[in-house]
């Protein structure tokens, strides 16, 4: 299908009084990440997301982490969502839906996605601790919500169980990568846009 041969990639630059971010995202990648932010734990999670989704992702981000990591994490989520939306275009030929379970030792996470163009986010997770190193666990919600909002996708994240907070969050990001890879993959049986409305 010639309509699906276009390169599905985008980049964005976002500069505010709180952050300075350059981000490039390729849907049809090889799992290569170049992540340079002031938030080491997020660097690790984005690397996992990229590898397991077989995307290409480059992030350069500086932020006001002397206050806390909130603005940097939030704005990276915004930028990733914007590039995902732009890269997918009108979504012709995509599978659209995905549901993926990923275990990580003691933890099990599930991510369900619909590339619906109707942003919605549901998050079910109870973590044993509220911090991993210097990273505030509540920022996982912030990142995922802004990603869903800016990408205009329907994103459901459920952490079914776990005893190690790091493992639980890691399972989420791995599942996110794999679910997004599946939902964005091209199905040769799909003619046009996968919706009875004729548009997403």
TrEMBL record:
Q: Which reaction does it catalyse?
A: D-erythro-1-(imidazol-4-yl)glycerol 3-phosphate = 3-(imidazol-4-yl)-2-oxopropyl phosphate + H2O
Pathway in which the depicted protein is active: Amino-acid biosynthesis; L-histidine biosynthesis; L-histidine from 5-phospho-alpha-D-ribose 1-diphosphate: step 6/9
Q: Where in the cell is it found?
A: Cytoplasm
Task: State if Ribonucleoprotein is listed as a keyword.
Answer: no
Q: What class of enzyme is it?
A: lyase
PANTHER family the record matches: IMIDAZOLEGLYCEROL-PHOSPHATE DEHYDRATASE, IMIDAZOLEGLYCEROL-PHOSPHATE DEHYDRATASE HIS7
Which protein are we looking at? Imidazoleglycerol-phosphate dehydratase
Organism listed in the record: Paenibacillus lignilyticus
